[in-house]
Amino acid sequence: MKISILMPVYNEFRTFDVVLDRVRQAALPAGCSKEIIVVDDGSCDGTAERIAAHQRENIVVGHYFLENAGKGAAIRAGISLASGEVVLIQDGDLEYDPADYQRILAPIVRGDCDVVYGSRFRGHISGMRWKNKLANRVLTTFANLLYWAGISDEATAYKAFRTSLLRQVNLQCTGFEFCPEITAKLRRLGHSIHEVPISYNGRGIAEGKKIRFSDGLVALWTLIKYRFVSLRFVHAGKEIQAHLVPTTPLVSASCCTDEQDLPASNCIY
Questions:
Q1: Lowest CB count within 10 Å: 30, 76, 123, 231, which one?
Q2: How much is the CA Rg of the chain, to the nearest whole Å?
Q3: How far apart are CA 117 and CA 67, in angstroms?
Q4: Among 135, 127, 191, which Cα is nearest to 160's?
Q5: Which pLDDT does position 250 carry in this prediction?
Q6: Following DSSP, what letter does each residue of 31-63 receive, concatenated?
């Protein structure tokens, strides 16, 4: 089984090489191979040049936006490039540890589920400010109340999905609202979310953390909004490729790798 590791990055020059090395070295469940897809979201600090260097060495799939479009737009572009059966989201900083890959991917590889979230609150957390912890708790509570999600960490970056399922979701996100949108729409379509514990080492704004209070408000509104929209705005109808790519101009995209409709009774109306 091929795993597509999707890395949306924006101005991560200081950490990118270290993170990429950890991703390359990370062990996967038995029988799995990986491809690494890096989407540069208009970086202006030298990150794009580092990606290009690794691309020339046939290490990554490189995809570039001319201007900053947002994390959600970068993720959508990466999904369209994925050739693996499973997509796993990886941030371009050091907050999350690729050593957790096996734990995250194992339930999908075994066939136990189609969606796995790595829960920081079921694992080990260090460096998370109380304001961020509170915001995470609020968003998770709303996800559970509105969608019966039964999760402990809605906003975790470590999320893994069967690619075929991910492409059935009509994603519209451009910024940090990817997390609440995918959570809301998966639950509206009747999919359960499996959680596993992970480790987390938070960073502050001085170290490059980009999410702000306003992003939390957008995330909250996203959870509320998608609880009440028609299901036709939730399901993409069939697997799609070009539709997933945002219209933001890009410089290049190249590829190199190493190596259903649901019953209506399962949907949340």
A1: 30
A2: 17
A3: 30
A4: 191
A5: 45
A6: T-EEEEEEEE-S--SSHHHHHHHHHHTT-SEEE
Which residue type occupies 95? E
pLDDT of residue 193: 98
- Separation CA 88–CA 101 (nearest Å): 9
Q: Which residues of the chain have pLDDT under 50?
A: 205-208, 239-267, 269
Strands (E) across the chain are located at 2-9, 33-40, 61-65, 86-89, 115-126, 159-162, 194-201, 250-253
**Res 240: pLDDT:** 42
Q: Residue 178 corresponds to which tokens in the numbers above? A: 């990817």
Question: Which stretch of DSSP H or E encloses residue 180?
Answer: helix 178-188
CB 206 within 8 A of CB 119: no
Query: How far apart are the C-alpha atoms of 209 and 203, rounded to whole Å?
Result: 6
Helix axes 71-81 and 178-188, enclosed angle (nearest 10) = 60
Specify the pLDDT at position 213.
82
Burial class (CB in 10 A: 0-12, 13-18, 19+), 122: middle
Q: How far apart are CA 219 and CA 177, in angstroms?
A: 5
pLDDT of residue 238: 54
pLDDT on residue 209: 55
> What CATH number is given for 2-260 in this structure?
3.90.550.10
**Burial code of 31-66, b = ≥16 C-beta within 10 A, e = fewer?**
ebebbbbbbbbbbeeebbebbbebbeeebbbbbbbe
Burial class from Cβ neighbours inside 10 Å (0-12, 13-18, 19+) for residue 266 reads: exposed
Say how far apart CA 129 and CA 261 lie, in whole Å: 41
